[in-house]
Amino acid sequence: MSDIVELRNHIRETRHFRIRLVISAIGVVVLFSLLFGRFFYLQVLQEEHYTTLAEANRIAIQPLTPNRGLIFDRNGDILAQNYTAYTLEIIPDQVKNLDAAINELATIIEITPEDRRRFNKLKLENTRFKSLPIRSRLTDFEVARFAENQYRFPGMDIKAHPLRHYPKGELVSHVIGYIGRISDKDLEQLEADKRLKNYYGSTHIGRIGIEKSYESVLHGQTGFEQVETDAVGRPVRTLSRVAPTAGNDLTLSLDIGLQQAAVQAFGDYRGALVALDPSNGEILAFVSKPGFDPNLFVDGIDHLNWRLLNESIDRPLNNRALRGVYPPGSTFKPFMALAGLELGKRSLHYAFNDPGFFSLPGSSHRFRDWKPGGHGWVDLRKSLVISCDTYYYMLAHDLGITNIHDFIGQFGFGKETGIDIPGEAAGLLPSPEWKKRRFNQNWLPGDTISVGIGQGFNLSTPLQLTFAMMLLANDGRAYRPHFVRQQVDHYKNFVKDNFVEEIYRLNLRQEYLDSVRQALADVTRPGGTASRAGANTAYTFAGKTGTSQVINIKQGERYNASKIDERHRDHALFTAFAPVENPRIVLTVLIENGGSGGSTAAPIARKVLDYFFLGTMPEPAEKAG
Amino acid sequence: MITPDIKQAWHYCTRYIDNFLLAGIFLLMLTGLIVLYSATGGSSARVISQLINMVVAYVVMWVVANIPPQRIMRMAFPLYVLGIVLLIAVALFGEVQNGARRWLNLGIVHIQPSELLKIAVPLMMAWYFDKAHITLRWRDYVIAALILLLPVALIVRQPDLGTALLILISGFYVIFLAGLSWRLMTGLAVAVTVSLPLLWSFGMHDYQRKRIMTMLDPSQDALGAGYHTIQSSIAIGSGGIAGKGWLKGTQSQLDFLPEPSTDFIFSVFSEEFGLIGNSLLLSLYLIVIGRCMVITASAPTRFARLVAGSITLTFFTYVFVNMGMVSGILPVVGIPLPLISYGGTSMVTILLGFGILMSIHTHPKLVKT
């Protein structure tokens, strides 16, 4: 090959190579432009989007849960408190084989079958992404032991929670109620009330009782902390902080000593007791027996305990004082007497010879007195002292149902008293309109007769009876019954104590009021139905016994307690105030299936009053029969 | 006062160094150190260690630059053979790390022979083309392709898809620059397109498939493999036009970025210096590549042209693939950003390439007679 050919080839090759090189250079520029375009897109067009993402990456809003307000009784005894407890929580979504993981966990920390049941129940009620407690109240040793092994348990973590504790347990369960874990249903409700933001970070909410009705006061204001976190979510530093404001403390008018005395006086009986201060409507004692341990509910009650409570024949979850409706029986009579006097159907001196029964004109049906053969000559005073039925059959007939309904309704029967815990029952004060509406039946003259002695369709709660008795005791001042005396905000140094509210005032003639009260005072004296309970008191007290029928007794049959199943025996009632001259306490005692008011309920009331006036704590009563 | 002796010595030290290229390299290295300081959260230990890498790499570059291209050419064949032997040794006795057999334990040092092939393969191919007929025939291209595919196949088996791909590309550049006809290249492109589905089904490991799937839609696997891409896109995007400022990138400082000092160092830079910084960095790379192209264009021999061109384009490929992967337009493959990412091996390999370029440019151009 000649040099010229070679040189020509060389030149051609160089030219070809340079063309390829130029193509490469163009490729380089094009691809770099592509990169620039990508950067322009990310950093100019999408900057806002990515800045938001970067901020979201870096900044976490952490709620600061406020401490819940404490609850005290009137003497400063604590009824609901907080303490910090370590809880082991699991996020079900982050654990692959939950059962196996819990089994493994059980090898280092005690997990009872109850814990598992409770956890499984919570798991069903919540989403898989929510952190749920499996064990609460871990000891320091258990906390340390888990921390050592934590790497083995992804999706599980120990959290410090302020936990609610009710040191008095069952004693005040029906008043204080309890808090429970916030459920999805609660969240919906909070959302609807526009309160959800304040619960960001809260785990519990008031379920019943004071805890529920004063939820907004007790909960407090949630604070927020903006923290910068790293990729693993560890806080690096705090950017800003709004401190939480603890809930307000509440002081109740309840006297835990009186409450204790009442529970002890009850002994094994089921029933209810309500005691209030007639000068302002403050509740002094509020018992529903049996109670339950509210601490069981704080972490979510497990299935077994729930069944034990819910299916118990004694119905411990039923707040008898607030929601239990019973025929008021003879405790209705003082209000009937006032109706007769005020409406001019009876005078103080009117008397008649009681044959022991009453029959409507033109009817042979006999409304019998509790005492066969009657009480002889009976006037208004005696009708109350010996609790004559015939007197009130006649009076009811003379008054008519509309008068009874309208007059006695003023004492609060048949409607809620407006007490400051939720769930109150309204009871029933019957009227022809009600019967038509309820049963689509016309009112019969005989219906009125039973109403006259507090039976028939009549239903009222122990709270209502106490409210009515308060009006009798304090000359007709209708104070709203309430538990909370004082609300203390430690942050604003603010105390709210204007909880007393006079809803209305009944205008009753003093002469009539005095006469009825005097008659009630005689009930506890020799000859009265509660004379045994009233013997040898250091103070005066007035009251009215009552027996509320659980089953109807057929015509011609007699009520015989020993022949009737215990659960079908009559309820015993006693409602009273003391001292007679200047009442400081009004109370009602209801003993379920306790028999007669005079023999069962009145002695219990006496014991409670003895504690109130003399400070003597009763020995638990022995159950009769 | 500079005495003639010192002048002499200075001349001796710098006569085979291309100052233009060196200036570009130094500017990129300086940028690298500044970003590295930020990426490590203010660790001067890392910076000093990288400085040592740079000094070592510089010495390597200087030594190579002082070797005449003719001698480099003579070394091509032995280097290639050594590389193949080492790759076979790896396949037989190599250590397994992270599920891949890539390392060879020589007692004192652990070496990764695939790094050597990054240089040896283009050298060998260029050497072959140089030794072949004046006018290249299709047979020459086939032999060059075999020279290329033998080590690539061995590296794919390790498996190290990223390195294999890069060597494949650097070898392709040699063939392309040697003048492979457009018709053949079109045919090759068609063949590759057809074989891709086959490669997908039979030639890939699950994790490799996953990487490609994730590249197509990072949000599909936001907490797994896509996490890297998403976080680094967030870093770049939130940098905006002017950037968040040095040491002030939240994505990098709070550990949201994976490998912030090596593969993903560009997202640190991008977050802190913004689009302005990115443009300057791209320009700097463009200047360096441009200078390399000038050197390539004026290279005297076929061997020199092909080697210089391949090194230049491979350098560009590193830059493009790294930035493309970090900004989410290419799959995540473990390729560092040249001259900026932390790491001794890549620094040495890159500067060794520049050493060859300088050697080609600064030694007397002997035209074959």
From TrEMBL, chain A:
Catalytic activity: Preferential cleavage: (Ac)2-L-Lys-D-Ala-|-D-Ala. Also transpeptidation of peptidyl-alanyl moieties that are N-acyl substituents of D-alanine
Enzyme's top EC category: hydrolase
Positions annotated as active site in the UniProt record: S330
Gene Ontology terms for molecular function: glycosyltransferase activity; penicillin binding; peptidoglycan L,D-transpeptidase activity; serine-type D-Ala-D-Ala carboxypeptidase activity; zinc ion binding
GO biological process: cell wall organization; peptidoglycan biosynthetic process; proteolysis; regulation of cell shape
Pathway connected to this protein: Cell wall biogenesis; peptidoglycan biosynthesis
Cofactor(s), by name: Zn(2+)
Family of this protein: Belongs to the transpeptidase family. MrdA subfamily.
NCBIfam families associated with the record: pbp2_mrdA
Function description: Catalyzes cross-linking of the peptidoglycan cell wall.
Name of the protein: Peptidoglycan D,D-transpeptidase MrdA
The encoding gene: mrdA
TrEMBL record, chain B:
Reactions mediated catalytically: [GlcNAc-(1->4)-Mur2Ac(oyl-L-Ala-gamma-D-Glu-L-Lys-D-Ala-D-Ala)](n)-di-trans,octa-cis-undecaprenyl diphosphate + beta-D-GlcNAc-(1->4)-Mur2Ac(oyl-L-Ala-gamma-D-Glu-L-Lys-D-Ala-D-Ala)-di-trans,octa-cis-undecaprenyl diphosphate = [GlcNAc-(1->4)-Mur2Ac(oyl-L-Ala-gamma-D-Glu-L-Lys-D-Ala-D-Ala)](n+1)-di-trans,octa-cis-undecaprenyl diphosphate + di-trans,octa-cis-undecaprenyl diphosphate + H(+)
Protein topology in the membrane: Multi-pass membrane protein
GO molecular function, one term: lipid-linked peptidoglycan transporter activity
GO cellular component, as recorded: cell division site; plasma membrane
Protein task: Peptidoglycan polymerase that is essential for cell wall elongation.
NCBIfam families on file: rodA_shape
Protein name per Swiss-Prot or TrEMBL: Peptidoglycan glycosyltransferase MrdB
